[in-house]
Design goal:
The protein is an alpha/beta fold. The chain contains 17 helices and 13 strands. The chain has a 6-stranded parallel beta sheet, sandwiched between helices. It has a 3-stranded antiparallel beta sheet with strand order 9-10-11, with helices on one face. A two-stranded antiparallel sheet has the order 3-4. A hairpin with a 2-residue loop joins strand 3 and strand 4 (about 55). Helix 1 packs across helix 7, helix 7 (about 165-190) packs across helix 8 (about 200-205) and helix 10 packs antiparallel against helix 11. The longest helix is centred in the middle third of the chain and has 24 residues, at about 165-190. It is elongated. The relative contact order is 0.14.
Length: about 425
């Protein structure tokens, strides 16, 4: 049974995470995705290699694709580039503004060749504004968006970024989502279009708990902003700014309801959002939170918060995880063990839901990784193939878009392809 995007052809000229992930997600829905890389390979392929020119990070972001190595800057590359654009339904890029134009793979150039092309672009900070041309990665977007400092706790005096590149990952998912909508629009109207995402916008969107509050609640927003600006103006370090920001956000002080705890043998995470779950948590651990009392004096906040944290931390240290998980489950309190990714490969829940699949790589042999994140009954998703070895399908793809064996050999001799 074919996938939902069977017959859709994607030219993926992206690198690192966001763009490549979008292409991989489209391939799982049946699209034919051709990954275009420079002759030496894209940077993510060369990051922490497990064998020459193959890395775990590259494998996970590029499975399902065919691979073509091409030097867009080579003198004779234009006919190859134009043939590939003519072949494609979707063109994916993630360069800084101005770079696609220099390579001839910008939207205006592409739609002259293929008027109904879907052009999908990811940038770090958006295409306009003072930061548009700056280089940026997920860690920078986290820092600039406030995502890093959304965690009120410091590690060794430093704010710490989320480790799995959330802005990149969510931008990749957003790109794939937008592309499918654009394809649907084209199916109805025959019209192509350009769409774009940015790491900065995604990082802002991930902070969903604060963005609407800031828009509606002008006075607290102004007080918080003013406090941060004043602290920075007098040269305060990041720890001081954190402290003053927390003073205007008392809900973050003494957080005992939504956090990890150390137990007698390991760690667990507890999540109690809303009055009901918090009341059940207090009853389960048998403590009183005076902050909920009608006559609570806010001047005691710091003292009370510290006491509650100490009480709850001490209680969790009394028993191991095997005690706490069923204990909290039985009281309808959301909790789970803190795990490492390596522990998930044989987890019963993962196995029961077939969340991992096995497939073969040309050079590395059998691989195992997460199944497609969307399950579809009428148009099933699947891992079409492993990530391509560098230039693995170059000759096949060039033949498919109209070049003869002699021309393909000539491109290789001229180092246009490999």
């Amino acid at each position: 049974m074919p996938g939902a995007l069977e017959g859709v052809r994607v030219l993926d000229c992206t690198q690192i995470i966001a763009g490549p992930l979008a292409g991989s997600l489209l391939s799982e829905m049946g699209a034919d995705v051709v990954k275009v890389e420079p002759l030496e390979g894209e940077p993510w392929r060369l990051q922490a290699e497990i064998i020459p020119k193959e890395s775990k990070a590259y494998l996970s972001q590029n499975r399902g694709k065919r691979g073509l190595a091409l030097d867009f800057k080579a003198a004779g590359a234009a006919p190859v580039r134009d043939a590939l654009i003519r072949w494609a339904d979707v063109l994916l890029t993630n360069y800084r503004p101005g770079v696609p134009e220099s390579l001839g793979i910008d939207y205006e150039s592409a739609r002259k060749i293929r008027p109904d092309i879907i052009y999908a672009e990811n940038t770090a900070f958006g295409k306009l504004g003072p930061d548009a041309n700056r280089r940026g990665y997920d860690i920078v977007a986290q820092a600039m968006s406030g995502l890093t400092t959304s965690n009120p706790n410091l590690q060794n005096g430093l704010p710490m970024q989320v480790g799995f590149a959330p802005a990149d990952v969510m931008s990749g998912i957003a790109l794939a989502w937008g592309i499918t909508a654009a394809l649907y629009h084209r199916e109805k109207t025959g019209e192509g279009q350009a769409l774009n995402t940015s790491l900065l916008l995604t990082a802002l969107t991930l902070q969903a708990g604060s963005k609407e509050i800031l828009a509606m609640d002008e006075e607290p927003r102004e007080r918080r902003r003013s406090a941060v600006e004043a602290a920075r103006a007098r040269g305060a370090n990041i720890e001081t700014v954190y402290a003053e920001r927390r003073a205007l956000m008392p809900e973050l002080a003494g957080n005992v309801y939504y956090r990890p705890y150390q137990t007698k043998d390991s760690y667990i995470a507890v999540g109690c959002l809303g009055p009901g779950p918090r009341a059940r948590f207090r009853e389960a651990l048998q403590f009183h939170d005076p902050r909920y009392d009608s006559d609570f004096d806010p001047a005691r906040l710091k003292e009370v918060a510290a006491g509650l944290v100490a009480t709850c931390e001490a209680k969790f240290l009394e028993h191991p995880n095997d005690y706490w998980i069923p204990f909290l489950d039985s009281r309808d309190i959301a909790a789970g063990p803190v795990r490492f990714i390596e522990e998930m490969w044989n987890d019963p829940q993962v196995v029961a839901n077939e969340f991992l699949e096995e497939y073969d790589h040309t050079l590395l042999g059998p691989l195992r990784g997460p199944a497609p994140i969307i399950r579809m009954t009428g148009t099933p998703t699947r891992i079409q193939r492993a990530a391509p070895a560098l230039g693995e399908h170059t000759a096949d793809i060039l033949a498919e878009v109209g070049f003869t064996a002699e021309q393909i050999a000539s491109f290789q001799e001229q180092s246009i392809t490999n």
